[in-house]
Amino acid sequence: MATLLLPCDGSSSALLAVRHAVDAFRRGDVLMVHLLNVQPPFSAYVARHVSRELRADFHRERADEALVEARQLLDGANVPYRVHAEVGDKARCIADAARRLRCDRIVVGTARKRAVENSLTSQLLERCAVPVEVIGGAPAGALERVGIPAGVGAGMALLWVGGS
């Protein structure tokens, strides 16, 4: 039985990973889940003008909001879990948590979009000593697949026509 690290930001893709972990628990493949939310840090400018206590409260509230549905899914299936919230670089925090919590693997949900060289998933695959299981969300819609290239093409055409 495995101990999973389950990074969750409350997105539909992340919740697919939570459902996957619930199914693995029901099959008897999972013993414990560590549910992790990573919040981005404030800029240095904001940090200078907002107290540490207020920043911590803000990050805690945002993490709690992001994990509400994931916790409901885990509670509903009686999956044993612990909640962790961190502030910092997502990939670094996830890799550090996996090591610190002695997780057997990381289960991460991701949207099915074009692979970006510096995506969170690729960063985790590079940084983590434990396996990273990627749960793909719904395929990208037509607008996501062709919208940006079409927009760039249209913009180039306008520039070409305008320059003539």
Strand residues, percent: 15-25%
Note the run of SSEs as H and E.
Answer: EHEHHEHEHEH
Average pLDDT figure = 86
Q: CATH superfamily assignment?
A: HUPs
Low-confidence stretches: none
The biggest beta sheet reads: 5 strands, parallel
- Assign the structural class, choosing from mainly alpha, mainly beta, alpha/beta, alpha+beta, or little secondary structure: alpha/beta
Rough shape?
globular
Q: Give the helix tally.
A: 6
| CATH architecture group name | 3-Layer(aba) Sandwich
At the fold tier of CATH, the topology name is Rossmann fold
Instruction: Specify the oligomeric state.
Output: single chain
Provide the number of structural domains: 1
Strand order of the largest sheet: 3-2-1-4-5
Spatial extent as radius of gyration: 19 Å
The tally of strands reads 5
Separation, N- and C-terminal Cα atoms: 67 Å
The CATH first-level class comes to Alpha Beta
What percent of residues adopt helix (DSSP H or I)?
40-55%
